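Task 17 of the worksheet. Students: predict the tertiary structure of the chain below and write it out as structure tokens. Keep your answer in the requested format; marks are given for formatting as well as content.
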Amino acid sequence: MMKKLCLFAALILSLASVGCRKIEARIAIKEGNKAYEAENYKDALSHYTRARNIDQSFPELDRLIAYSQIGLYTPEDHSPENEKHADAAIAELTKYLKKRPDDRIAREALVGMYLSANRNSQAIDFYRSYLAAHPADLETIKSIATLYSKQGNFNESLNWYEKITLIDSKNPEAFYIYGVVCYEKVAKNPPADLAEKLAIIEKGKAALQRAIQMKSDYFEAMAYLNLLYRQQAVVETDPVKQQQLVAEADRVRNQAVEIIKKKKAAATAGAKS
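Model answer:
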């Protein structure tokens, strides 16, 4: 009987100890929150770290510690001490997202940290890993396309913009953006190979024509379609075909101008009524 009472007493003391640790951890978290709200990230980090050392059962502490490290990080400062804040923030958010993979805000914070620290390749790797489990996540695909574009990797970027048109196939804007990307490439950084340039022009024209088919007054798409026809005319060696391309560019441009005029007239009439 005495043995059972001793075991019961030990259990009560153990539970009380656990309860005390949780209370102590919550107090530290509360202090951390106050410091974070005051933008005192160093103290916030100290309180959150102490809370986790006391009680590791709060998964949110990984995120809070990461956010404090982000607060301590200074963009464009490449000193070893500053890079440690980036490394720590990335490590903590990565750990947190394994527990809470659907936390979009934390996911965006992680990618934001990659970008602030000029680690675009890691951001792409993260997004691609996430996409493996969420293959139809349109925002992730858009982000990957944008990141490849920032890297100057046009071919990969174009591939991902094309994926957007496949997934978001009923949205004319998806085809418009794809066409604009094609124009930007051939106009500002054209490939040395003429056949490759012409292939990109054709892809861009097809995308913009698709956008116009879906939205007949899409004058922005018409403007870029006009520009692509002119890019094609520049490299056309047959004078007759060249004139035909310029004529088609003029037709599309004039169509866009007429649409703009009608929209302005309608807006003016609406304002007067």
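Marker's comment: The CA atoms of residues 55 and 202 lie 61 Å apart. DSSP finds twelve helices and no strands in the chain.
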